[in-house]
Amino acid sequence: MSYKLFIGDYTFSSWSLRGWLMLKRFGIPFDPTLVEFDVDSVANQLSAHKPARTVPTLVTDTGDVLWDSLAIAEELATRHPEAGLWPADPSLRALARNLAAEMHCGYGALRDECPMNLGVSYSSFMPSEATLADVARIDEVWSFALEKSGGPWLCGDYSAADAMFAPIAGRIAGYGLDMSEAAQAYVDRHLSDPAFRQWRAMGEARNVRLPWYARDFDTKPWPGPAPLEAKIVETGTAENANCPYSGRPVTHLFEVQGRTFGVCNGFCQAKTVSDPAAWPQFMALMN
Fold this sequence. Notes:
Layout: E1 3-7, H1 14-24, E2 30-34, H2 42-45, E3 57-59, E4 65-66, H3 69-79, H4 90-105, H5 108-113, E5 121-122, H6 129-149, H7 160-175, H8 181-192, H9 194-206, E6 219-220, E7 230-233, E8 252-256, E9 259-263, H10 266-274, H11 280-286
Parallel strand pairs: 1-2
Antiparallel strand pairs: 1-3, 3-4, 5-6, 7-8, 8-9
Helix pairs in contact: 1-3, 1-7, 4-6, 4-7, 7-8, 9-10
């Protein structure tokens, strides 16, 4: 079974992150296609897959089109029950579905005032009362779920509910919003999650800056795990002959902690340099 997933920009597209995590985090194979926000309308770029007009859009091997994140979660759970998108325990499964549905339709003030931007962290943002109310509600449901399930994710193991809330964790981190201790620990768990870090690293590698997402606030370093020291180099001898991602011969070089490695293209070079420890295939070379 082969899926095609159409996604928007890694740095800015919160709904795309949700759809991507529902496949990536649960080990379901797929081919991603990037839809450029600054080239043409999303609807025009998805014209071959009507009636989809938004990202993420999932196209199945039979040509069925799913253009809504919650619909994608439910269809994948039906097609891949072994993947565990929803908890096996009935009580936790009901909780996870409640959480995902509330995320799907709620928190409008937070979404409007704090668009996802994983390329920056603000230090001087002052939220409105409506956004503070959304944050308080998020804190409430997160704390309830974590206490009920025992963690480490909302309903025990990682579920579709966590994929739905991953961009919210990115917003809370990026805009410096205050949370309770338990809720902040949950945010930090997302920031440390390898899949989340890979998504963010790919955004850093593309280095797209869309001005309509920018906000005029003071900034600070991203609050996630500090990446290993790394840089792109033009010359040198790589320790590896073949790319850890594709297996093809090395053509692009970089250094990590003073050691030289290589990959087969510029994008993999840039994404690895952005956050080397996010990529297990690369880190296997470091051992």
